[in-house]
Design brief:
Elements lengths: L1 E3 L2 E5 L5 E5 L6 E3 L4 H23 L4 H37 L2 H15 L1
Antiparallel strand pairs: 1-2, 2-3, 3-4
């Protein structure tokens, strides 16, 4: 870890970088190991959701639409799980090490919203 003022830059062994600041702004900009996988999952979910939209536009059977929509929801929940694991493994570990209780509070709020 290299510190530049309040900013900390972490470079992982695979070259993934995370840059964040602790303090007043509580800014966190992290590039995680799973960013590419998350983006791929989101792209697939978007494509699937677009096909569900077409199903509705074409007047497909409601049961079929609901089944496909549940697949989109499951894909998004799965993506959220990957993001959460990444966040805990990087951001929250950093927050605990630096005594950043706001990051932990923010995580708890995000989990509450995500689980609803």
């Amino acid at each position: 870890m290299e510190e530049k003022g309040q900013a900390c830059i972490h470079v992982e062994t695979d070259g993934a970088e995370s840059i964040h600041c602790h303090g007043e702004g509580q800014e966190h900009k992290h590039i995680h190991q799973n960013t590419k996988a998350v983006l791929n999952r989101l792209s697939r979910a978007i494509g699937h959701l677009e096909s569900v939209k077409r199903m509705v536009e074409d007047g497909k059977d409601c049961s079929e639409v609901l089944i496909q929509l549940s697949a989109v929801i499951a894909a998004l929940n799965s993506t959220g799980k990957v993001i959460l694991q990444d966040h805990i493994g990087t951001c929250i570990v950093d927050a605990v090490e630096s005594g950043d209780s706001a990051a932990i509070e923010n995580l708890n709020k995000a989990i509450d919203r995500f689980i609803k």
